[in-house]
Amino acid sequence: MRLPNKAMTGCLLAGAVLVIAACGSSSSSSKSSGAASGGSSSSSSKTIDIYSSLPLQGASTAQTDPMVNGIRLALSQAGGKAGQWTVNYTALDDSTAAAGKWDPSQCAANARKAASDTKVVYYIGEFNSGCSEVSIPILNQAGVPQVSPANTYVGLTTNLPGSAPGEPQKYYPSGTRTYLRIVPIDSIQAAADLIAMKNAGCTKVAVANDKEAYGAGLATLLELEKADYGVTITSNTGIDPTAPNFRSYAATVKSQGADCFFFAGIVSNGAVQITKDVHSALPTAKVFGADGVCTDTYTNASKGGVPAALYPLLQCTVATQDLSAYPGGKNFLAAYKAKYGVSNPDPYAIYGYEAMKLGLDTIASLGAQGNSKSAVLKALFATTSRQSVLGTYGFNKDGDTTLKAYGLYKVGPSGEPVFYKTVTPTKTV
Questions:
Q1: Count of structural domains within the chain
Q2: 196-201 contact pairs (CB < 8 A, 24+)
Q3: Domain containing 239: what range?
Q4: Per residue in 223-279, pLDDT tens?
Q5: Verdict on whether the full-model pTM lies above 0.70
Q6: Do 142 and 27 belong together in one domain?
Q7: pLDDT tens, 371-391?
Q8: Domain contains 2
């Protein structure tokens, strides 16, 4: 579900100290007070601050708006509190209108805002791995616990193949890990994508990446893991996301004899145009993508996505599976529909929900220490068997989730991604 237009001036209250939670804002943030009455409680000594930092402009909003809805739903269900602590939640925007996606300077500004807040104990973000490359070091120096509901780039937490020199140490100048994520890393996603392509009959796959940390890293992992799954990759090409067209690239792909195409990157980085051009050159080639494009702004022609002729040819992966099949999925969907009027939200909605639930439950478990960043951080890394809406999971020493499965999606007649099946790789680098 898309949130209301962020430029809605009808949501402004002259002289008010609050920003109404349900309203969007043309500024880079919106704040929700956890007070049950809806009034500000920021002057109370029993308040803590939680931030999220996500792109709230551009194509990614098809995923991030539902994610913010999930975050707000979890806070609402908790009565705006984490144990004895009243929660003030601020949704920061890490994108700019000019970029139409996440922006490094905005990522840095958001992190600095949270790092300078004496009451902050939890930071949900980022959505894009490249943005986390910017924010993690800033938050790390301030000791702010950070949990991403979406990052998959391996180099943020490990030096596994696919990472860059100096990673992940360069992101943690304090020497202490402060970052965790609740989605499986790209070594797992790449394997899931290779399984999907093998099962679809792909023999020669052309890969294009958007040169960002996430896209380039994922493409590298596809190459590193291809032998384990019997898939041949004809090329891995970094593209210029601002190019007006990719016809020359498409012609090259055709000359290589590719029968499948994989785009590693995000929707905003030329994903639709390059897919259109490849499809024009290779009308029967199957098209694949990962979580960066597994959303209706890529899959749905009526929302600016690829042509309807591509629907039967397209598959993509996301860490979420069939939402109704999760242990708490049906209850989540019912609550989401009751609050927002949408029965089938983007899968990332449940990850926003769980990211906030994890924070609230962790803070509540600490009692009087719930306002301590260091106590919250220690408790997060000690999580081993959390019973959650996603199932049972914990974190390893690097801050990576123990969850291992990805959902494979096809595209329905309406252009919306439709869950197909769960893929759980047994081999990764």
A1: 2
A2: 196/288, 196/315, 196/317, 196/408, 196/423, 197/229, 197/231, 197/260, 197/262, 197/286, 197/288, 198/229, 198/230, 198/231, 200/260, 200/286, 200/288, 200/315, 201/259, 201/286
A3: 186-318+406-423
A4: 999 999 999 999 999 999 999 999 999 999 999 999 999 999 999 999 999 999 999
A5: yes
A6: yes
A7: 999 999 999 999 999 999 999
A8: no
